[in-house]
Amino acid sequence: METIYAIRSGPYIKIGITGGDVNSRMSSLQTGNPHKLKVSFARAVDIDRSWNKYSVREMEMEIHRRLDEWRAEGEWFMIPPAAAEEEINEVVDEMIAEKRQPPYGQVQNSRIVSISISNKAFDHLTSGISTQIFLNAAINEKLERDEA
User: Fold this and answer.
1) Is residue 102 included in any domain, yes or no?
2) Given its phi and psi angles, is residue 74 left (phi above 0), alpha (psi -120 to 50 degrees) or beta?
3) pTM for the complete prediction?
4) By Cβ atoms counted within 10 A, which residue in 18, 25, 82, 85 is the most buried?
5) Which three-class secondary structure string do you get for 67-113?
6) 30-38 contacts: CB < 8 A, separation 24 or more?
7) What would the pLDDT profile of 40-58 be if each residue is shown by its tens digit?
8) Per-residue model confidence as pLDDT tens digits over 105-124
9) Which domain, by its residues, includes 31?
């Protein structure tokens, strides 16, 4: 599990990620910083990479991209804490909701679908057409016929 955090330093907020404790991360940032740091917001994100399309690092990069107009330097932004929190939650919620295609060999929607293919179709499979695309199309066609 990783945490996306917003740490405040005077008028600035650093938005980053850590795989450890946010307070420990804040302590390491405090070294060399003349302002007293304070955790403004932290959200733990547990990602299952077999199903979730995006990593926590990709979420952080998207947050930084969306907040570019507020960027002071690097990962530091001049943004109100509430606006930073809102943007972090919005990006994480959007990116967690977007799922990968089920890994090869897993059953979609808990339904087992069997298909039979002709020799001609099998020849196409072995001549360079993407097997996954072909099988997904065949399964979807079968499901549509069954539901009709």
Assistant:
1) no
2) left
3) 0.66
4) 25
5) CHHHEEECCEECCCHHHHHHHHHHHHHHHHHCECCCCCCCCHHHCCC
6) 33/9, 35/9, 35/10, 36/9, 37/7, 37/8, 37/9, 38/7, 38/8
7) 999 999 887 667 788 899 9
8) 454 444 444 555 555 555 55
9) 2-97
Tokens of 79: 């943004």
How far, in Å, are 22, 40, 123, 139 from residue 119 at the CA level? 59, 62, 6, 17
| CA max distance for the chain | 73
Residues for the chain: how many in total?
Answer: 148
In order of 12, 53, 89, 132, the CA distances from 101 in angstroms are 39, 9, 24, 11
Domain stops at, among 76, 97, 118 = 97
C-alpha 94/C-alpha 47 separation (Å) is 13
Q: CA-to-CA distance for 96 and 88, rounded, in angstroms?
A: 12
Q: Which two tokens stand for residue 43?
A: 């959200």
